[in-house]
Specification:
Length: 791
């Protein structure tokens, strides 16, 4: 059976107490900041779920109504609505936004909405910035989701046209409470589902005519190089492509190319044995033609004589065809080993039903059908409008390989969260055209590691591959180290996965979400929060020729911050330009931050709950982190599936790993914990397990100022406490050493290098005015100043 008989859980009926209704209008107060505004000339209103909206049963908010024969007023703590009870018009429907921290703002019906952007259907052929659709976050304090033209979802899960000409708007008047607006969007449209653990590893993808042998040899080469991947993406050449022209093009296909893949099941079993999942690319628009292995079965079920050779057209509006599409084309391939599908729909927005987007139908029903695996539902496809966050993961499309494309992607990814779309997968490194630029590739891979999903991709040009060994030695080293880092970060990322699904908090958030009243946060479009602990500011421009370093503009909120990689300490509450060589990326952690990672296992691709954990701990404040784990791909996200391990640091005194609580059956019985205290002086520590002293290995790296404490083979049901006998102190900064590293790399006169270093040695932080007087090149001056003004 196919998943078209499945339904998403929905609660579309609003509370009666929240509704104010007249003959032709209906206004529903969903929250004190969210209104549904409906107008219908025939007095019919929609109570079914729609393509966009699933849930309207918000708790009844506090509001007041004042009504006369010719006017209706509604008051909440955040909004004041005035309406003349006539057909919606600018002079008759008016809302004042009074709540939140933004200045009071006004909206008249049909006023253009100026929001902070949402996302877009695709980046296909984009070479830099493209226009974005709207989200629900606006500096003006309000935004609109227009649901007037979406289909209704019937009781049996199919779609149905709605009354023509009706108006159905959702007014988001949240002021500058951006996170709250998106959280309520998630409830209105349905939450972001929990993703399988394995999606957070690296994905290998390339549009290339791989043979089975070539693909296996490549994966074995990655294993030898200790470069981990968790997902194998096989582009369209897995199926027959070179077909008789009488059938059309080979773009659509469901029949394995046996010349390339003689035994598909064995090939997929081989990948699975290496802890990899597999997805195949499909372009379904051309239907099923007579050369396909499944043609006879499909034709018979569709009432076509197979002897006729008549093609079976793709028709996503035909429920019977959709059943056959899944049961005869996809399910047999899944039974052989396909884990999920890459839906590469590029054929427009038109179907036989006016206004019905075929992309939405494919996303929706593929997502429902994927439940037959007995695992988490999953799709991989393009964005189809507000509400698409219900169908992760997003494929952003085929970008041009250029610095302009790279420069746009961090902003594009963060801004998508304004529309609730948190799980974009980009073509990391770019897809097509462009020029070879090793530095750009290194920077793009760094961005990919600190993106929601990390999928390397490239087109079928023989020179355009993302294998690290294709690049110069520096870029190769950077790519390899960051790809390993991505797999190490999975414990952190998986906890953020839970927060995205349970708490409506996307992994990537724009800086202005947390500090909407700070003007500076709106002027760092490529900087973003990466989970609860990290801020990323990827470098998206080439290095300057003087310092050989790239630069990113960053805002650090008030407080003390550490560079995640080099441990440099900064005082926040300021904008700054940060300079990094190509081996480094600006990523910051607040004092008190805790970042759980894993040591890479012997089987590099294994992303099950690890036995060996590596915890990065940043001093200077108290801090805590709840490490959430479950089986990783269970079909239901139930409380009883989860286990939580609390990590807590008391600044300068101790670090505590609490006993795991919950479903400990999903964990190894014992774990080895490597605790890395960053940016600290050496200190003596004692380690206790359940209150009893235990042996632990301690070491100190003076170059990186990292104190490491390793507790081996401790039961997960035990508590571990590290106590610093004489306290733990933050390390003094090595100003001279850091400046020396910049000068060592700088392409300037040796005498100038010596003069700059001598000035810094003599004056320390007070060297900045003297350096200005030396008329240094701006990038060098800025890079040295960054170091001197750090803590």
């Amino acid at each position: 059976m196919s998943g078209i008989n499945e339904k998403l859980e929905a609660r579309p009926m609003a509370r009666k107490e929240s509704i104010i209704q007249g003959e032709n209008y209906r206004i529903t107060v969903l929250t004190e900041s969210l209104l549904r505004l409906e107008y219908s000339r025939d007095g019919s209103f929609e109570d079914r779920a729609t393509q966009t909206v699933l849930n309207r049963d918000f708790p009844v908010p506090v509001f007041k109504v004042s009504e006369t024969e010719g006017e209706l007023k509604i008051f909440t703590s955040a909004l004041e609505l005035t309406y003349n009870k006539q057909e919606f018009a600018p002079n008759g429907l008016f809302i004042k936004v009074t709540g939140g921290k933004s200045n009071e703002t006004n909206w008249h019906y049909k006023d253009p909405v100026k929001d902070l952007g949402g996302t877009a259907r695709t980046l296909d052929e984009a070479d830099g910035a493209i226009p974005l659709e709207s989200g629900v976050v606006s500096r003006n304090g309000f935004s609109i989701v227009d649901d007037s033209r979406s289909m209704a979802v019937t009781e049996d899960g199919w779609v149905d046209l709605r009354p023509e000409g009706s108006i159905d708007l959702y007014f988001f008047g949240y002021g500058h409470r951006y996170q709250e607006a998106v959280k309520d969007l998630y409830y209105l449209c349905g939450r972001t589902p929990l993703l399988p653990r394995w999606v957070f590893g690296n994905w290998w993808s390339r549009y290339h005519r791989y043979t089975e042998q070539e693909y296996k040899e490549l994966m074995e080469r990655f294993e030898r190089e200790r470069i981990p991947f968790s997902v194998a993406v096989v582009d369209m050449d897995w199926h027959l492509v070179d077909i008789d022209p009488k059938y059309g093009s080979g773009w659509t296909g469901y029949t394995w190319n046996r010349e390339f893949f003689p035994d598909p099941k064995e090939f997929m079993d081989w990948l699975h044995s290496r802890n990899m999942k597999i997805t195949l690319n499909v372009h379904p628009a051309d239907g099923v033609r007579a050369y396909e292995e499944a043609y006879e079965r499909v034709a018979k079920r569709m009432g076509i004589d197979p002897k006729s050779g008549e093609p079976v057209p793709f028709d996503v509006t035909d429920r019977h065809f959709l059943e056959v599409y899944f049961e005869e084309l996809h399910h047999p391939l899944e039974d052989e080993g396909v884990d999920f599908w890459w839906l590469d729909w590029q054929q427009g927005t038109v179907t036989k039903i006016p206004g019905l987007d075929p992309l939405w139908m494919l996303n929706h029903f593929h997502y429902l059908d994927s439940a037959r695996r007995g695992k988490r539902r999953l799709t991989f496809s393009r964005y189809a409008g507000i509400g698409s966050h219900r169908y992760p993961i997003g494929f952003s499309g085929d970008t041009v390989i250029s610095w302009e494309s790279l420069r746009f992607q961090p902003y594009f990814t963060a801004t998508a969260s304004n529309a609730g779309y948190g799980w974009w997968s980009h073509d990391i490194g770019g897809h097509m055209h462009g020029v070879r630029d090793d530095e750009m590739t290194a920077r793009w891979v760094q961005l990919g590691v600190f993106s929601p999903l990390n999928r390397l991709h490239s087109t079928d040009n023989p020179f355009n591959g993302k294998e690290p060994w294709k690049y110069n030695k520096i870029t190769q080293s950077v790519m390899e180290e960051f790809l390993r880092l991505r797999h190490k970060l999975v414990p952190y990322l998986y906890t953020m996965n839970r927060y995205a699904s349970r708490d409506g908090q996307p992994l990537v958030r724009p800086m202005y979400w947390l500090e909407p009243e700070r003007e500076e946060t709106y002027h760092v479009p490529n900087e973003y929060y990466f989970g609860t602990e990290l801020i990323a500011a990827p470098i998206t421009d080439p290095a300057d020729t003087c310092t050989c370093m790239g630069c990113a503009k960053a805002w650090l909120p008030k407080g003390t911050w550490f560079d995640f990689f080099n441990g440099r300490r900064y005082e926040g509450g300021r904008l700054l330009s940060v300079y990094r060589c190509v081996e480094e990326m600006p990523v910051f952690v607040r004092a008190g931050g805790i970042v759980p990672m894993q040591e890479l296992p012997e089987q590099m691709n294994d992303l099950s709950n690890p036995q060996n954990l590596e915890i990065c701990i940043f001093p200077g404040a108290d801090g805590s982190f709840s490490l959430w784990e479950d089986e990783g791909d269970s079909p239901e996200d139930a409380d009883e599936n989860w286990v939580c391990t609390e990590l807590t640091q008391k600044n300068g005194e101790s670090f505590l790993i609490s006993a795991a609580k919950g479903n400990i059956s999903v964990l190894p019985e014992r774990r080895t914990w490597t605790l890395c205290f960053k940016g600290v002086e050496n200190a003596a520590a004692e380690v206790l397990t359940d209150g009893q002293a235990m042996e632990a290995v301690q070491s100190y790296d003076a170059d990186t100022r990292t104190l490491t404490v390793r507790a081996e083979e401790v039961p997960v049901t035990s508590e571990i406490k590290v106590r610093f006998i004489k306290g733990l102190m933050m390390a003094e900064k090595d100003m001279t050493g850091s400046v020396y590293e910049i000068l060592e790399r700088a392409q300037i006169a040796y005498d100038v290098k010596e003069a700059v270093l001598k000035t810094v040695e003599e004056l320390g932080e007070r060297a900045v005015p003297a350096l200005f007087a030396m008329e240094l090149e701006e990038p060098l001056l800025c890079a040295v100043t960054e170091v001197l003004t750090a803590c």
